[in-house]
Amino acid sequence: MLEIHRRRRRFAAQNLQREIDEPAAVSLGRIAGGADEWKIGALQRGAAPFFNVPQEVVLHKPTGEQCFIEQIIFLIKTDAGYRLGCVMSDITQRKQAEEALRASEDRFRSLVQNAQDIITVHDRNMIVTYESPSVSRLLGYEAGYLIGKSPFDLMPIESICFLDVS
What we know:
Blueprint: H1 2-16, E1 26-27, H2 28-31, H3 37-44, E2 55-60, E3 66-78, E4 81-90, H4 92-113, E5 120-122, E6 128-131, H5 134-139, H6 151-154, H7 157-160
Antiparallel strand pairs: 1-4, 2-3, 3-4, 5-6
């Protein structure tokens, strides 16, 4: 399967870098590169694991720039036999947006985890769902101690009766 994947990537890269002067559907024997009959039979039956499954491929343009492609390969039955069809979409912008989001999340996580202040996140019932590592440093509790508790769980009972909860 790895060899078929390499051939497919090489074929796509060659055809993106020059004018395509042949039909988009190519014969299975040519794609299989003179493969054994059982391999061609598996392709014809649709038994190859890459048929009808979206796949992401990284291609390099002649300028050296990376291009991310999502492709779906499928069989086309014709009078002359089976042909391969392929639909390709450029997903470079989506990949760049995902990478920018991942980098932003990493920066935010680093900021929160290294802050000197105590940072907690609460749900709508005031139950702690996240606590920063500074809770252990500043208050001496072990990590995760506040998770699942409300602020009222930490107050002395005498202090709670003075709160106005209206």
